[in-house]
Specification:
single chain, about 230 residues, alpha+beta, five-stranded antiparallel beta sheet, four-stranded mixed beta sheet, 6 helices, about 50% helix, about 30% strand, transmembrane, DUF4230, membrane
């Protein structure tokens, strides 16, 4: 009789122990899932932080170049003529207005692990003229002595020189160099935090005025704004 009373107790004890083991195992699994969800880096959150950091810079200048303009102006008066040639060097910077960059311009494609960034067009700043390096020479001393021809011609050359510097700066090869330098700088700004978080991602940067490619599918990816908006 004693043996019969003990057996149900043993069965109940083993059953309860099995249930506790299952509950403990399930709790451990749930704990692992929770920790993984908390510790796994979110690329959209990292990209949004990088975006905020870039916008705080306001304007990005990743490329600059020095140019030299050589311009000549002529003036005739009283049957006399005068001519002045000016050599004007100047530095031009290429900038991007990061204040115009928004979350809509950053898209994450989870399938390909690609972060796409669309930048505003590169802008050419007004030339910074090296005043100490300007050189002028000319002919027509009589007219320049009798009139203000020298000042008039020099002023015309300065205006024409600035236009010439901008023309050189906006030439296609220079704009390509400026875009490449800016693209590399922005790619690094987004790629480095992702890499530090252990995320193997590709960052691609294009500009708003770039011609659209036939194989481009910008609307496939979800913008950071959409991702973060759905997460709220």
């Amino acid at each position: 009789m004693a043996a019969r009373r003990v057996r149900p107790f043993i069965v109940d004890f083993v059953g309860a122990l099995a249930i506790l083991i299952l509950l403990a195992g399930g709790g451990w699994w749930l704990a692992q899932r929770y920790v993984a969800a908390r510790l796994t880096p979110d690329p959209t959150t990292i990209a949004n932080a990088s975006l905020s950091g870039l916008r705080e810079q306001n304007r990005l200048s990743a490329f600059a170049a020095r140019f030299v303009a050589v311009v000549t102006s002529k003036q005739s008066q009283f049957g006399l003529s005068a001519e002045r040639t000016t050599i004007m060097p100047g530095m031009v910077r290429y900038e991007v207005d990061l204040g115009r960059l928004s979350a809509r311009d950053v898209a994450w494609d989870a399938a390909t692990k690609t972060l796409s960034v669309r930048l505003p067009a590169v802008e050419v700043t007004p030339p910074a003229i090296d005043l100490d390096a300007i050189r002028s020479y000319g002919s027509g001393g009589v007219l320049m002595t009798l009139t203000d021809a020298r000042e008039t011609l020099d002023a015309a050359n300065r205006t024409a020189g600035q236009s010439e510097l901008l023309r050189q700066a906006r030439a296609a090869p220079m704009m390509t160099l400026a875009k490449d330098a800016t693209r590399r700088a922005v790619e690094r700004s987004f790629a480095m935090p992702l890499k530090a978080a252990g995320i193997d991602a590709t960052v691609t940067v294009r500009f708003a005025d770039d011609p659209a490619r036939n194989d481009q599918r910008w609307d496939v990816s979800r913008s950071i704004e959409e991702v973060l908006g759905n997460a709220k």
